[in-house]
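Page header: ASSEMBLY MODEL / two components / 558 residues total.
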Amino acid sequence: MTLSVTLGHSFGGFTLDVAFEAPPGVTVLFGRSGCGKTTVVNAVAGLLRPQRGRIMLDDQRLLDTNARVAVPPHRRRIGYVFQDARLFPHMTVRQNLSYGRWFARRGNGPDIGHIVDLLGIGPLLTRRPGLLSGGERQRVAIGRAILSNPRLLLMDEPLAALDEGRKAEILPYLERLRDGLGLPILYVSHSVAEVARLATTVILLDGGRVRAAGPAACVLSDPQAAPLFGLREAGAILTARVTAREADGLVRLDCQAGTLWLPDAPAAPGNSVRLRVLAQDVMLALTRPEEISALNVLAGTVQEVIPGAGHDALVRLRVGDDALLARITARSAGALALAPGRPVFAVLKSVAVAPESMGA
Amino acid sequence: MTETAPLFDAAMIETIWLTLKLAVISTAVLLLVGTPLAWWLSRAGGLWKEIVATLVALPIVLPPTVLGFYLLIAMGPASPLTALLGRKLSFTFEGLVVGSVIYSLPFVVNPIRNAFEAMGSRPMEVAATLRASPLDAFFTVALPLALPGIFTGAILGFAHTVGEFGVVLMIGGGIPGQTKVLSVQIFDYVETLQCPTR
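Prediction written out in full:
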């Protein structure tokens, strides 16, 4: 299921002009507040009629302003999880979950018991939405959207209204959805952490335009895109396989770039995980550092050096088939004579780990 | 002083029954007409909405006798409405229902319209993303959410119909068993000094 979108819409002095494709998996629309993300998602759902545009879901035309085609929202079969759950207050949790399912009666929808288990909302079924916590409400809203048996799921910052604890509570469920249901998801976010953890594809929006688009690992390690993510958040994604838990408790992971040891991993040996390495947590050396406390050193070559706005520079490395970003000072870049093709060693000071689907 | 008639004689019970029948039927018609009208007023925009909203509100500003007079002419023997229906509505129970509905319309439409407006467009959007057609969404989401407003409208419409006098007297006169409702009966009692006013 591939979604292709071309949109033009002007309102209140703001012009949105975007074109992108969302292949299967999780496609994250990333950008700052006010860059037009929600407008795009509302147009895909059919809640907003853009001035110009064409939206295709595989070969079905959902919108074509030239041909005056606009499928009404209730016939699009597109689920929508809003930032503020928007559960129906006059219904119980069970009735909320059954609502979309009832109108979707044709065709085989997902099993309600399976979704309830997946989202851990079994104990809430008889309650009213007013008595649920923010995290519980959002999980019910996700379940409700899935049970309407959509062909595509839209999620507009589903975690933005939650505190860190609630976010951590829901993220694993989203990962299970991505990996377990095979449902394509268009996910709006302005959190790099969510992008790094969930995205298969990233569409980077800025000022109503697409600045970068592609597989998550490429876009996240693109130094040109780094300023849009924020320099502190810029970093690369590596996919690694957990190979062993060693005697001292450290976990051994193998990725294309080499072997890493981490204090903990959320998956058992044999499973694959997604590693996020922030640019500011990577040091560079010309020779393999000896007698150093850091365990994780990867050999690679410099691909690109991009001077920053201040005294810093971003260096993109190729390590095996993966890319890494390092943020160093401009002085160091000069002292080490870093230039494309130069072999270097990357010292990773810190690595964040998230589970990765086997198939993605 | 004349002899006071027993308060609950057969004529009085007939009048109370007629009044309740008028109020129940009028309230039912008011809800059936007023709810879609309130929905349209809460969603529509432009000149037509303003015109209709003003027409609906007219009974609030017009004196009941004046409104009743207009309705009497509209339902009278010489009116186009009578020609269309083949019979006149003035001085009939059906005429009273029509008059009551028009007179009480703003008191029913406004609370329901406010409830629909307070609800906003979001619940309907959510329902649409869950594959409910606009009609399905109206009955499963908009109506239940507006229920308090509909309840208020029904009570106001009922009470207002029971209590009206000017319009009823103009359209219906006071034919016992047909158009003589409680308010007219009370007026008759006081006018003929059959109740202890002194």
